[in-house]
Amino acid sequence: MTTFKSILWENDKLQLLDQRKLPLETRYLQFTDYRDVAQAIRDMVTRGAPAIGAAAAYGLALAARNSTATTAAALRAELETAAAVLRASRPTAVNLFWAIDRVLARAADPALDTPAAIAAAVLAEAHAIAAEDIQTNKAIGYNALPLIPDGAKIIHHCNTGSLATVDYGTALGIIRIAHEEGKQVFAYLDETRPRLQGSRLSAYELRHYGIPHTVIVDGASGHVMRTVGIDLCVVGCDRVAANGDTANKIGTFNLALAAHAHGVPFYVAAPTSTIDMTLATGDEIPIEERPAREMTHFGECAILPDDTPVTNFAFDVTPARYITAIITEKGIAYPPFEESLAKLMEAD
Ligand code: MRU
């Protein structure tokens, strides 16, 4: 079965497509407890900035649903506890914190004066976050259309498609919409060590959509730009600072440097929920380091000498000067990003 529905809410339970198993196995895991949702985000059952935001919102809905609190105040206190557990799951993608804050703000509405009313509002807000994500991603894709020449050869990093979001995707959504709109596009997919989101997940999606592509190892991008010729790179993001510095999957910065060296436009696809105007620069973005085993093993098989020290940075920060434009659902921001992002964030 081919499915890209990363997140489902059915019969008052959350179901997450286990992305660790794709593309070999399609299985959903069922969640009734927010603590297990937090663990699933940490373990990358679900991943991608918008998807983990939506999953956390549903985690709060589960916390509200399971609560035995008899007053609105007691339930709000329990939701704060659940929020702290969910916030601690992964540090870099700001969508996680954005979605949690949004649900808590809804729960804080003084008009909600019973636990049942709060629980209903929390679930409604989680549904709204999920539904809006799809519209946001489509808008990003359509806003990007003028930037994608017919016949474009495009490098993409990690997985930013339906699997990384509620549906459609951001950077991969741009490629998909260009294809749906009749443009001939060809994608070079970075395989994205160590978890292979490019080869396992992006290739799985593009194959299904019938979009021509090939997978390259992460270190091949400079060679491909020099020998094949690339028209643009498009990547997603986990957090964009107010000056445009962008945190994304490890290897993105190297790709941007290669693009800069070859004069290739480098685009970031960013829902405004990924833009963190509270951080002046990318130096303030927390960068997740993940377990060594992701690098030392391939499945069950050790691929490094015993006890070799490794450092598993999950993200890097691409300085704004290497970014041609940031494509959001509200429009396209060009440098200087301090001004263009501030304007976009104020727009309705
Ligand atoms: O570690 P992951 O797989 O969660 O990292 C995902 C990325 O870096 C994506 O590029 C980003 O979250 C944007 S997804 C639309």
Tell me about this structure:
Helix 1 packs parallel to helix 3 and helix 4 runs antiparallel to helix 5 (115-144). The chain has helices at residues 34-42, 49-66, 72-87, 94-107, 115-144, 171-180, 197-209, 221-227, 252-262, 293-296, 337-346; strands spanning 7-10, 13-17, 28-31, 152-156, 185-190, 213-216, 232-235, 239-241, 246-249, 266-269, 275-276, 297-298, 301-302, 315-318, 325-328, 331-333. It is globular and about 65 Å long. The protein has 2 domains: 7-138, Up-down Bundle (Four Helix Bundle (Hemerythrin (Met), subunit A)), CATH 1.20.120; 147-346, Rossmann fold. The longest helix is centred in the middle third of the chain and has 30 residues, at 115-144. It is built from 11 helices and 16 strands. Residues 47-50, 93, 158, 160, 164-165, 169-170, 197, 236-238, 248-249, 314 line the site of 5-S-methyl-1-O-phosphono-5-thio-D-ribulose (MRU).
Essential attributes:
single chain, 348 residues, alpha/beta, Four Helix Bundle (Hemerythrin (Met), subunit A), Rossmann fold, seven-stranded mixed β-sheet, four-stranded mixed β-sheet, 11 helices, globular, binds 5-S-methyl-1-O-phosphono-5-thio-D-ribulose
* Strand proportion: 15-25%
Separation of termini? Answer: 40 Å
CATH superfamily descriptor of the largest domain: Translation initiation factor eif-2b, domain 2
Detail the poorly predicted runs: none
Continuous helix count: 11
> What is the helix content?
40-55%
Shape: globular
Q: Which compounds are bound in this model?
A: 5-S-methyl-1-O-phosphono-5-thio-D-ribulose
CATH class of the largest domain: Alpha Beta
Number of E strands: 16
Structural class determined from secondary elements: alpha/beta
How are the strands of the biggest sheet laid out side by side?
A: 6-5-4-7-10-15-16
CATH topology of the largest domain: Rossmann fold
Total domains: 2
**Gyration radius, in Å:** 20 Å
Largest sheet: 7 strands, mixed
CATH architecture of the largest domain: 3-Layer(aba) Sandwich
Order of helices and strands: EEEHHHHHEHEHEHEEEHEEHEEEEEH
Please tell me the overall pLDDT.
Answer: 97
